Amino acid sequence: MKDFIKNIRWLGHDGFLIEFKGFNVYIDPFKLKDYSRKADVIFVTHHHYDHFSEEDIVNLKKDGTVIVCPENGVKKLDNFDFILVNPGDTGEVNGVKYFCVPAYNIDKKFHPKENNWVGFVLDFDGIKLYHAGDTDFIPEMKEIKTDIALLPVSGTYVMTDEEAYSAAKAIKPEVAVPMHYGAIVGDKSNAEKFVSLCKDAGIETFVFEPF
Fold this sequence. Notes:
By secondary structure, the chain is α/β, with parallel strands linked by helices. The chain has four helices and twelve strands, in the order αββββαβββββββαβα.
């Protein structure tokens, strides 16, 4: 697991880059500083500007770049291949298997369940990584099986750090990782509180520095 984590880069906010078998797999890239690693596939959880960032996506493009994103709200960009998904959909692209899970708010209006926006469980040759997207702690998380869980912790638009801890307890990953802080809402204290709560419960965590 530690060897696989070395292939993950946190790009700030909800953005990640996973280097896998020579492919560059991005999730929700936003306000990147470096576009030298062109994207083979970009997974987009939903179409708010800080997740479906046209500027970043266009700058990451190369021949054959594929975007996997929710069908609802999509704005197709020229010269890209799109795979449109809904919760429950599965597929494979560039050797990465994906399963789309719901992502929504329970007590907020920012991410309605009926929008059918998603989080992703990505399978990298048997190592599963869950990117929750923008979501609260929802009942569907209790059914998720993953090795690594990337969970938002900032509150306001998503789970608070305490709610993310409850989600980690329900999911039971090998490693829980805080995200969605330090850019628009939330700060490092949210990540630190999440880590502290998880430590007391015996849940292993990993905190990335922005890449």
